[in-house]
Amino acid sequence: MSAQCATGRIAILGVGTAGLLVEPQPDLAEQLRRARRAKVYAVAWSTPKNGGKTLTLYVAGIQSTLDADFYVAGVRRTGSVEVPIMTLDQVLEDAGAPQPLDFVSIDVEGHDVEVLAGFDLAGWRPRLPLIEDVVQSLDLHRHLVARGYRWMRQTGINSWYVPADAPFRLDLKGRAQCVRKCYLGPAVPHAAREETAAAPAVTARNFTNRASARLPRSERRFAALRRCARACSGSCASASLAVPRSPSAAA
After folding, report:
1. For residues 218 and 245, what is the distance between their CA atoms, to the nearest angstrom?
2. Which region holds residue 61: left if phi is over 0, alpha if psi is between -120 and 50, else beta?
3. For the chain, what percentages of helix, strand and coil (3-state, to nearest 5) are there?
4. What's the DSSP call for residue 182?
């Protein structure tokens, strides 16, 4: 039920429903209406504060986004379009979606936490949320964990979550993915992020090289592991993550 060639897409499946699709770009929304039987909403989602407004969508193929600062290497924007905004709750209520939802897929190019701010997870309680997550930070992960969900699996750049009480245990592959996502994904030191904010013209490659040069390799690995272990301990399904000691402290 994914939206082909669409940005900001969502597929919602529930008992007795054919699903919903949301696509903010008018031309792509029309393509979906011709190709799919599901109801299509030609809107974008954002926070409750933005609900009912019209915002700018920056068009860049499948990386189109509401986030003016969103960056993907090698992707060029081709224009912009003004799009109406609804929250995810408003779309579901308007469509008369069932509770709980069986499946929700969200791909909104960096606007994930804002979309989830307008999505009552406790009320709709989706059994299987699938969310694109390139792990630039753990904000999305923490948001879901705080609302009773556990990370379950990574497929490509998509993270699968389940309710915290779901009878699921990670296998060896899943544990390895959990370490990669939660320990090694957001490994850039905070000091380097502050440098980027102060000097936005720095290139992504030079920024990464400078950030990596700040600490010895063992200390860099420790910093990433310790920060992510604190954030994720107990939040990946049945995975026990210990907070490591610093190599210099151990010495």
Report:
1. 11
2. left
3. 35, 20, 45
4. I
Using the structure block, give the residue that is written with the tokens 């003004």. Answer: 82
Q: How far apart are CA 245 and CA 223, in angstroms?
A: 9
On whether the CB atoms of residues 199 and 218 are closer than 8 A, the answer is no
Contact status, residue 144 vs residue 162, Cβ threshold 8 Å: no
Q: What is the reported pTM?
A: 0.69
Contact 41, 20 (CB under 8 A): yes
* Sign of the CA dihedral with 191 first, then 194, 200, and 204 last: positive
Does the bond joining 100 to the residue before it have cis omega, within 30 degrees of 0?
A: yes
**Residue 87 Cα to chain centre, angstroms:** 16
Q: What is the pLDDT of residues 111-160, one digit of tens each?
A: 999 999 999 999 999 999 999 988 778 899 999 999 999 998 888 889 99
How far from 123 is each of 16, 29, 59, 113, 126, CA to CA, in Å? 19, 28, 33, 17, 9
**Exposed/middle/buried for residue 147 (C-beta within 10 Å: 0-12, 13-18, 19+):** middle
- CA dist 232 and 242 (Å) reads 10
